[in-house]
Amino acid sequence: MAGPKGRNETWATETTAVHAGEFVDPATRASSPNLVMSVTFAPETLTGFSARDEQDYEGFVYGRVSSPTVKQLEDKLAALEGAEAALCFGSGVAAAHALICGRLGKGDHLIVPDANYVGIAELARDTLPRFGIEVSYVDVSVPEEVEVAIRPNTRMLWLETPANPTMKLCDIAGLAALAHAKGVRDVAVDSTYATPIATQPLALGADFVVHSLTKYICGHGDAMGGAVIGRKVELDALNLEASVHFGGILSPFNAWLILRGAATLPIRMKAHQEAAMKVAQFLETHPAVSRVFYPGLASHPQHGLAKRQMKNFSGMMTFQTKRPGPEIAARMVKELEIIHYAVSLGHHRSLIYWIGTDDIQASTFRHDANQLRRYREYAGDGVFRLSVGIEGADDLIADLAKTLG
Ligand SMILES: *Cc1c(COP(=O)(O)O)cnc(C)c1O
Question: Where would you tag: which of 2, 206, 255, 338 has the fewest CB atoms within 10 A of its CB?
Fold first, then answer.
């Protein structure tokens, strides 16, 4: 009874999360995935020496090219996204860097959102232009703006929805169709906030999905990782360059932890959404709170798109307070008992952090006046970014109520 290896198209998402990529180990009959830390593998037959030769070889040769526990996670992630293949990296940013630098070169043009995850925004602004990649920053929630930004040399459109930290959404299907029709080769979606439980960007026409595995997919705040998910032929080529030459691969130990986390992703996402909805409703009616952005609330400006594009509203929200954010943040650091005042998100425990608009403008976005006006429509002088965990909603509400006064 070896069990189905890999995946089965007819499985429910819950079954896929548990079983895809997993199998009973034929050598030991172990039911759970083995943690294989070996760096090198002794082939049964003579193979070539370079990674290029290894691509035609079925087995494992060297840990930077691929290794068994990481491969099991890759198979599970591909199945969850309904994709042919996945490739893991040491962090979400390593995955983004691998995809962008593996696909683009000098003279190519990249469109990124005018506000997205800071690490990738800074990579696009500060690093890529040094290597001759042209970058435009566009409000991707407005398709007409994407359309006018596309140039003959635009090779990639980078999307993120919901976006960190604004909670702005963008229409993946509409933008992918538009970009492809105008000759843009690659549409990549950072789907970290949505997870494959909410949205499967490839089915909507995207070419690549990127995840920070550090967040919901691991889900326990104890391992960093990243993934690029898409078609096998393109990921094989990316593997040769990005894994083998850039080298930012995922450790098998982290892959093993993330495999274990990913198995409960569907049930965790249900719990995140349920608690987040209650917390968002509480915040929306609280007198000290001026604004809440949660895709599941009817008050979210893109709630209609959220309902179309997201099967789960996830656990991420922002809110703004009437009193100055830094003042309340200082109280949170001292007084919160359950929620941790800390960066990161998507963990089983709730996390909150104040993101001041002036600070993030200076460090990261450097918007012009028009972009800044639009950023402030969603973020005001700053937002509390709240990642609602899987604790009891009433406990989270009581914890927040104390610090809101
Ligand atoms: C955290 C995050 C990343 C980066 O992931 P790391 O694992 O921290 O490198 C990328 N995109 C989004 C949306 C994120 O929230």
Answer: 2
Residue for token pair 């003579």:
46
Instruction: Tell me the best of 88, 89, 93 to mutate to test the pocket of ligand 1, counting ligand atoms within 8 Å of each CB and taking the most.
Output: 93
Task: Look up residue 32 and give its two tokens.
Answer: 């759970």
For the chain, list the domains and their CATH numbers: 13-263 (3.40.640.10), 265-404 (3.90.1150.10)
Q: Are residues 389 and 351 in contact, defined by beta-carbon separation less than 8 angstroms?
A: yes
Report yes or no: 297 and 281 within 8 Å, Cβ to Cβ: yes
Task: Count Cα atoms within 13 angstroms, Cβ side, for 67.
Answer: 25
Q: Which atom of ligand 1 is nearest to the CA of 94?
A: 9
Q: Which tokens hold the place of 29?
A: 């009959």
Task: Compute the distance between CA of residue 351 and CA of residue 386 in angstroms, rounded to an integer.
Answer: 6
pLDDT digits (tens, 9 = 90+) for 50-100: 776 666 677 899 999 999 999 999 999 999 999 999 999 999 999 999 999
Name the 3-class secondary structure at 257. Answer: helix
Rounded distance from Cα 228 to ligand 1 centre (Å) = 12
Burial classification of residue 89, based on how many CB atoms lie within 10 Å of its CB (0-12 exposed, 13-18 middle, 19 or more buried): buried
- Do 240 and 95 meet the contact criterion of CB atoms below 8 Å apart? no
Confidence at residue 253, expressed as pLDDT on a 0 to 100 scale: 98
On whether the CB atoms of residues 204 and 220 are closer than 8 A, the answer is no
Region for residue 221 given its phi and psi (left: phi exceeds 0; alpha: psi -120 to 50; beta: otherwise): left
**Whole-structure pTM value:** 0.97
CB atoms within 10 A of CB 93: 21
Reference 179, options 162, 201, 197, 194; nearest CA is: 201
Q: Please report which residue ranges of 154-251 form alpha helices under DSSP H.
A: 172-181, 195-198, 232-238
Residue 29 exposed, middle or buried by CB count within 10 Å (0-12, 13-18, 19+): exposed
d(CA 241, CA 328): 47
